[in-house]
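I'm stuck. Protein, please.
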Amino acid sequence: MKRLINWDAHIETSGRRLGEARLTTTRTGQGHDELSAYMDILSHDILNNNQAILSCIEFITTSPALDERSREYTAKAAVKVNISTLMFESIRELCLANQSETPPLRPMDLSELLVDAVQALSRLFPRVTVTTSEGLDKTAPSIMGNQMASDLVLMALVNLALLDKSEDGRIDIGIGESGPEHVDVLLSSRHIRIPSAFLEHDAPHLTSDSRSKMVRVAGFLLARLMTKALDGAFEVRGGTDGHPDEGCTIRISLRREGLQ
């Protein structure tokens, strides 16, 4: 059987090209609108490529001659490409938001949003167990958002799962409040460590060398930008409830329904 493509390298290369395009455009002094247009076009191209790759993977997995080890490898490859697609769809949403073309905010059921995100995560990472606060499906308030709100929560969950290398990953979800105008979604895991550079700096203030290491938390970076676009806040801190020296906690603050 022919050697399969290195999917990790493919996704890493796509991300690096995207970053290079951003840096080149910024250095030439072009405006944010033009930058967003280029990023939108590039995202379209990568999304099309990813769909072609997924079609190839589906074709490979239907072969009766495929051994179990190769089948497992292609399944992991499909997960990687699906995550890449999620990331670039999020980039497109950010590009549209930068050009004021994002859909208007509307009331959204936070409980339903979280259930959908957990189900999507389970399809990508069956080994990861997600636990929610008691009664969360009935007590979560509504928020103001759009598709970006759903995608950023899933993006944060996916990045947590990617960083969790344990055999039985676990993510806890809770709801809190950071004031009368916002609702907090709290995601925590005791099994991972967040790169210190991410906790201490924003991506634009990192050196090029440090940015290359930040690919591990690219989902958090995108989720942070998407939350800001929704007039919210995104915070990552070390430690979890009762375990200040273990894992990390993510706080996603979203606007409460009814506030203009």
Remarks:
- The chain has two domains: 7-98, 106-255.
- The beta strands are 106-109, 129-132, 142-145, 170-177, 182-189, 233-240, 243-255.
- Residues 68-98 form the longest helix (31 residues).
